[in-house]
Structures are given as C-alpha cells and as structure tokens.
Write a structure and sequence with these properties.
Length: 509
C-alpha cells in the first residue's frame, strides 16, 4: 500500500528498547488518603452541585436511572450511581490502526504517546514567524507522524483554517489524516450532523461498513463540558453520535485553574475529575457500558495575566495527579502534556515538554496527548519540533521501562569474566546482545565529539531536524487509500486535498 517510502520503514523493524504500552504508574504524587479525599469531594460535586445544561437525551435517560434536577436546574448524579457506572465501564479498549502493527491496547498503566493539538498556526522550517495552518499541513503532519516510532497514534495537530464550510472541514480533515498515516486517528466534529457523512466516507475507504466495524481505524469524541460544570450542547451531541464509530469515545475536559477552575491545585483537580466523569456519565446514561477514555486535562493560568500557560511545573504536577486519580477509578486515561509556552523549538520548549511528558508517563497515562510538535501554548505546530520531540519521547519511554533486575541482568558472571579477561565489556557477548534492546538511540540528538560537530558546520538540533523533515516529506507518500476508492470518494465528497500534492516530485519539499 506504500509508495516511495524509502529508508528504515521498508526494512524489517529492529528490536528496540522501548515500545508502545509499557507499564507506568510508579510516580504517585497523591497518597492513598489524599486520593480518598479527592474522590469524596468529586462525588460530592456531582451529587450536590451537579451539571448545568444537560441535553434532553441525557436528562431523559439520567432521570430514569435515579438522577434528579436540583432547585438550580442542574442535573445531579447520586453517589451510588456514579460508583456503579465507574465499576461497570470497560477498563480495557483497543485503538486499531489501518495496519495491525499500529494497534494499541488502552487501559491499566500502559503508556502511549499521542499526537494532537488543534493549533491554528504553523511554524515553517527555519521560520521565526507563524502562518495560518491549512489542510496540506494536516496531511503533511500525518505523514510525519506515520514515520515517528515514538508517536503511537494521530489526531490533527492543526486546523485547516482556510475552510468556512465546517462540514467540508471535518470531512477533509478525516480524509487528509487517513491519507497520511496508518496509525489510529482521533477525530473531532464541529457539528453532530457531520459524523454520519464522515463515517460514510470512512466506510468507503475500509471497503464497506462491515469492514470498518471490524477494524475502526478512527474514533470520535469531543469536549462535552463547558467549565465550570456545564454541558455543552453541540459537543455532547457529537460524543453520543460518535458511538456510531463502534470505537471508544474520547472525552476531554480542560478547565483552567484560576480562571474556569479554582486556583488551588487540589480544587482544580476536583473540578476536572468531576467534569471528566460527567463526560463518562453522559455517554453511559444513553449507551450503558460503552467504552470511554476520559481526559481530565487541568490547564493552568498565569495569574499575572490570566492567560493560559501550558509549560509549567504546576501543569505537570496536577496532570500527573489527574492520571493517578483516573487509575484510582480503574478507567482509561488521557492527559495533555508537552504544551510548551515557547514560540520556538528551543531550550525552553525542551525542558517544559520533558518535565510534563515524563510525569504523565510515569504516572501511567494511557494516552499522553499534545506530546509532540506543539508550540506557543497550543497555538502553533512546528514539524521540526515534532521530530525533535520524537527523540524526547524515546528517552521518556526508556525511563518508564525502568531497569529489569534478575540473575542474568545483575551480571555477576559477566563481571567476573571481564575482570579476569580483556578488562572491558565492548566485545563481550552480553554487550552485543543488549545493544539494541537495552538502549534507546536518538535520531537527532548530537553525540559527536566537538571537532566532528564543528567540521559539520556546528549545526543545532533544529537544523538537523529540518533535514529530517525534508527527507521524510519529500519521499514518504503512502498510498493508504486505494486509487479506485479515492476516485469514488472525490466524486461523492468535496475533497480539497489536491491529488498532485500526494505524489513525489510535486515541488513542495
């Protein structure tokens, strides 16, 4: 199905030190007592304060199951009902790729790193100013993610800002994503009426509705809550309609501490968890037992200005605590990490992303989203940053894997042999055996000696990343949509991605 990929992707995959789904969960910022306190307050919020503006379908089903509307017109969920829904919700779910080698098993403490963002700007290679993002950028970023081993799934990183017709935008986003990557892809929709036509297009790609149901390589969802503690009508309807994918629903909520959530981090944690569980309850009241991955994404305000700040220690800490609480409930988790405030792929971006992604991964997050490419507090994406972050994710995942302790790895006999033999381990059989499986090697990070670096022109990591981006995007044009099917799709739907832009030699790269 691939055309013009070249390089490592055409060879048999080598053994690696990291892989998708390695268990995290060792970092626990909250004690057992503190988790119990948070949980009690979350349940109190849902039972007594409740959720405003429930859509009619939710209200009807919830009242039948024992919920009530309080004197403020807010839907309140009895503690026992919430606990029953949590207990009965699927704890494991699958995100399936077009290619089975990209299948992900979500749940427990299995850690995956994800691409996503919805930025409205791009930072082009070598540029220092942003430009509005386009449909071509969605396609190109999908092709990049397709080649990034440490980005395990895809969600559009940018918005196609040239579209005024929102149905055309949603359809073309799904098309460009499917054309660019075989990895599982998350979709969001501007209106509930856009779900069905998008599904019809995906059914064509898959070879029929039955085949898509057997392997749903995309899923839907959204942000059904407007903070603080109100349901949003359109996104609530989209979440319910997205059950037609027969894939898990992804529910994300993102209250901002100090603005739309309490400034106290514990209070922000309580609210974001209550809102995330309200998203689960939305789906479960109408479709009991449907698989839902919840995303409590507690955002942070810089209280000097009131603006959103994505790259700070508070964000990293409270996000990891949110992951720990989702594990407390036994549910599948998503968190936003890697949301640097830096405008460029520089030192600031590196340390802000590294801290947040590391804490989320070590807390055992099933889906660390926003983990690659994002800049400017989620306002922009850089393809150079994306490939740099792929290296960063490899290092983070290697720390998640930890150190295996057993009789063989403790290496007593190896030490004895070397001490009485050559005096070094470079040629020892153990070293050669473990070279690939014990160590993760970056593609871009510079490990040369200073003289070699100077002889090469003293390039920085952004310059090396630019070469990597150009190499991939000039050659990697996968053909994930059969040409005959593509013709039918273009005859039926208003696909704006030019065919000539989807082949090598088009002059864009």
């Amino acid at each position: 199905m691939r055309r013009g990929t070249g390089g490592r992707s055409d060879r048999q995959p080598m053994a690696r030190a990291v892989r998708p789904g390695m268990p995290g969960g060792r970092f626990q910022p909250l004690s057992q007592h503190e988790m119990a306190q948070v949980n009690k307050t979350v349940l109190d919020v849902l039972e007594n304060i409740g959720m405003g503006d429930p859509i009619p379908a939710l209200q009807e089903h919830a009242l039948r199951r024992g919920c009530r509307m309080n004197e403020h017109g807010r839907l309140c969920f009895p503690r026992a009902l919430v606990e029953d829904v949590i207990a009965g919700s699927p704890k494991q779910m699958s995100f399936l790729g077009r290619d089975p080698r990209h299948d992900l098993e979500i749940g427990g403490t299995a850690v995956h790193t994800y691409g996503g963002g919805d930025a409205v700007n791009m930072l082009d290679i070598g540029a220092s100013t942003y430009r509005p993002s386009t449909l071509l950028d969605i396609y190109d970023l999908a092709r990049l993610v397709d080649r990034m081993e440490n980005i395990h799934a895809y969600s559009r990183l940018v918005v196609a800002t040239e579209f005024r017709d929102q149905l055309a935008c949603d359809l073309n986003t799904a098309y460009a994503s499917a054309a660019g990557t075989a990895k599982h892809t998350a979709l969001t929709f501007n209106h509930v009426s856009h779900v069905q036509p998008t599904l019809e297009m995906l059914h064509l790609m898959a070879g029929g509705e039955k085949k898509f149901r057997e392997r749903p390589f995309m899923h839907g969802g959204g942000c059904p809550v407007i903070s603080p503690l109100r349901y949003g009508r359109e996104n609530s309807e989209v979440c319910l309609e997205s059950t037609k994918f027969h894939a898990p629903i992804w529910v994300v909520v993102a209250p901002q501490a100090g603005s739309t959530a309490p400034a106290a981090l514990a209070g922000a944690l309580v609210q974001v968890l209550a809102e995330a569980l309200a998203g689960l309850l939305l789906v479960d009241m109408v479709h009991p037992g449907y698989p839902v991955m919840i995303g409590p994404w507690p955002f942070i305000s810089d209280l000097r200005t009131g603006s959103f700040s994505g790259g700070n220690g508070e964000e990293a800490l409270v996000s990891a605590a949110a992951v720990q609480m989702v594990k407390f409930y036994g549910l599948a988790s998503s968190i936003g990490a890697g949301m640097t405030d830096s405008k460029l792929p520089d030192n600031q971006a590196g340390f802000e992303k590294g801290i947040a992604v590391t804490l989320a991964a070590h807390a055992g997050c099933n889906n660390v989203s926003e983990s690659a490419g994002m800049l400017g507090s989620l306002m922009a994406v850089s393809p150079e940053a994306l490939v740099i972050d792929n290296d960063m994710l490899g290092s983070v995942l290697r720390t998640v894997r930890g150190i295996e302790i057993n009789d063989e790895t403790l290496s007593y006999k190896v030490i004895e042999e070397v001490v009485h033999g050559e005096g070094h381990y470079l040629r020892h059989a153990q070293t050669l055996k473990l070279m690939r499986t014990e160590y993760e090697y970056p593609e871009l990070s510079d490990r040369s000696v200073p003289g070699e670096w100077e002889a090469a022109g003293s390039p920085d990591i952004r310059q090396r990343a630019a070469k990597r981006v150009k190499s991939i995007l000039s050659s990697h044009y996968p053909e994930y949509i059969d040409p005959a099917i593509d013709k039918k799709i273009r005859e039926r739907f208003q696909i704006k991605l030019p065919r000539e832009a989807m082949f090598p030699g088009n002059g864009r790269w």
